Amino acid sequence: MALSDMYVAIADEMARSDLSPEIILEVTHAINWYQHEKFWFSDATMVTINTIAGERRYTLPANFLNIQDVLGTIGNYTYLLKARTEQYIDQIDWGNNFWSSYPTDYSIWGGKIRLFPPPSANLPITVKGTVVLPLATTVGATKSYAYNTAFNANDTIQDPNGNIETCITGGTTQAAPTKTYAANTAYVLGDTVADYRGNIQKCIAAGTSGAITPAWSGTYLAITIDNENQGPLQWQLIKLNWQTNYLVEIVDGTAVWQLTGTLSNSWTLDAEELIRDRALRNLYGRYVKSKDNYTLYTQFEQEALQNIRRKNYGKVTTGWLRPHF
Question: Which of 73, 155, 197, 242 lies 20 to 30 Å from 254 when distance is taken between CA atoms?
Fold first, then answer.
């Protein structure tokens, strides 16, 4: 069911053709209400953190809702870090910087994950959890994205993730990468490459790349040292790849983008009954003043929530069970 189909279905169910703006508003309110709930279709895996020697804290995406697992990797072995309170790690971590090791514990504080013991460099740490999904939209992109192209404020494009990105500051997008990254290769000032995350990195100090791919920084404008033992090749992240976090602004040349919606039908297919029933309950309560229908759809909403949690949690797209009454 598309979002527009849900609007029509609700209007038909109420036999009201005069509440179109109110229906759209209530569906949006219902999605907002459940955005912070944990459902199988909002599960996501955070991009692996590449640790910095002795660095204890790493920022999590702003739309990261909760953490399920934190995994460390040693060679071909993957192990589970133990969740701790911030107060517990405060007691055992004295802040020493003369040692580092493989992290075994973590805590969450202030939107950051804290690792203990303080990690050695370039240890992959994977954070698995649930994200807040962007709002569904019926509005498609107004333009197609292209490198080195002028966009105006309020132009919209569809990114490779299927999400709608809105230009919040008009400008010209970043030029396409000029080179492909390779080991043991000379780069000159101004060369640009795409790293393994799809971010664009710019050479700010010429040199020759190392035999091993560097641990690219994933922070905008941060610097990555390549071939550290020989140097002095340095890269600076000048454009982040498209994010699934709708609170992150993407600086793209002189243009700035923000994720404002998704064409994904998760809310209107996977959670169709849940969203529709909450919207109907509120519509009957606010505009029709029907106590019986308000009570009926309150019960339907509770049952839909129970069903989607019990039957759908842990499922994948193929073979999932749609809740029915």
Answer: 197
